[in-house]
Amino acid sequence: MKSNANEIKFLKNRSIIKFEGEDFLGEIGIDGRIFKALTLARISVGVISQQAIENGISILVQESDSEKAVNCLIDEFEAERKSGKVSQIYSINNVSVLGFVAEDFNKVLAELARNNVFPLLLNQIAAEKRVNIVVTSSQDEKAKNIIESEISKKPKTVHLAIIGHGNVGKTLIEQVLESSDEIKRRKKIDLKVVAVANSRKIAFNKKGFDNNWNDEVVTAENPSNVEELINFSKENQLENLIVVDNTASKDFVKNYHALAENGFDLVSSNKIFNTLPIEEYRKLRYTLNKNNRRYLYETNVGAGLPLIDTIKLLHLSGENITRIKGVFSGTLSYVFNNFSLRDDKFSTIINEALEKGYTEPDPREDLSGNDVARKLLILARELDLINEFEDINIQNLVPESLLEVSKSEFLSRLEELDEEYQKIKENQEPGHVLRYVGDLHGDLQKEKGELDVKLVSVPATSALGQLKGSDSIFEIYTESYGEHPIVIMGAGAGAKVTARGVFGDILRVSETK
């Protein structure tokens, strides 16, 4: 008997016949007249539902009988139509019925709503906990999957679309494929990568990609655009959708609104959106709230370190954050940690960082300080400050004479930086080291804070001074902790670390779905 309780009755090809009219509800004999008229016309009737809000009655019939049913009821209620008691009788075709027993029907309804499935009709027998819902046939399979995983405690399927399969994206896909069995067993979440895209093409696999995913991307023929992805998710009725942006694309972030409006939650290692003008930033938050969607971006600052989450929690709990300061760039951490301790020239250390893959192909992208500035702005906005990128004071480490030259010329003239940085190093107080820091300070209870990105000299014994390798460090000062900051330190860069952080965000979104 128990196994039957979890079964879902699933009827396709049905139509709803709707009566609409003023003061039509609760009138004695209406149901009897409907049944009688339809029985005489040899039409079998399913659910009858009265909707007080809409002043109407809905009846369920086979789709093939819908036209006949409408005509037969128009004849039966001719007098009511003339008097205006019934304003219209019409059919809604292409619907399906799902019948099931649910211990907690509100939870099932909430899961359906989160996936943009809203029943057209609802009929509940409270004593038996039995429910019948009617949904459009374009969403019936999706509704069935959601209800099934809710009432039978089957693993919940979460469908992932991975945008960008460079270092981070590729590593992430491999991490998901490796861990999926373990996650299914431990967390009852079945992660499926159903779409992988680069800037040119997007590959789809409804059942989920396996280790040959790269071959499928190579042979894919669909152009890489968001409409393709949204259509694919609708045509295949996919529930629990997450799009993961591993690009650094200014263009792809323009799709965040459309994705949120079409049922996708967002996870992103791409920093661009969170540093757009504040109006755009707020517009997306509004779209997310309106559509009950989530947007996680822990890896925007500090790769896999739990930094944004910590700041969010402190801020939401009413803790006054008074300053955030630290070494935000793994690249510049490596450069100045080594330059401060070794006798090598500045250009030698830059070349070494370039060879090890720590810097961007053009090191000026790191040395300009823009990356650190973006990260600092993201943290400022977590505190509800309305700073814009233009408000940040950035010390660009590249001399003006080398700003506009080609990348190859810049690399060939790197030694022109040596003299100046040697001088800066030698002019420090004893026992001090150089660090390139981001600093958010000022009165952070006002609309705007002060944002500085600059090279500073700090005691070698301080938390900033003891930084090693390419690690990042963040000091969060609060009113309660006074002069003793909360310090978060660790690997702040690298594809593996970033991918692991993105994976953490995916799981967090999945668990709340």
Automatic annotation (TrEMBL):
Location of the Homoserine dehydrogenase catalytic domain: 306-507
Cofactor(s) this protein requires: a metal cation
Chemical reaction(s) catalysed: L-homoserine + NADP(+) = L-aspartate 4-semialdehyde + NADPH + H(+)
EC number: 1.1.1.3
Keyword S-adenosyl-L-methionine listed: no
Protein's pathway: Amino-acid biosynthesis; L-threonine biosynthesis; L-threonine from L-aspartate: step 3/5; Amino-acid biosynthesis; L-methionine biosynthesis via de novo pathway; L-homoserine from L-aspartate: step 3/3
Location of the Aspartate/homoserine dehydrogenase NAD-binding domain: 164-298
Keyword Amino-acid biosynthesis in annotation: yes
Domain Aspartokinase ACT: start-end pairs: 20-77
Similarity field: Belongs to the homoserine dehydrogenase family.
Protein name per UniProt: Homoserine dehydrogenase
Species annotation: Chryseobacterium zhengzhouense
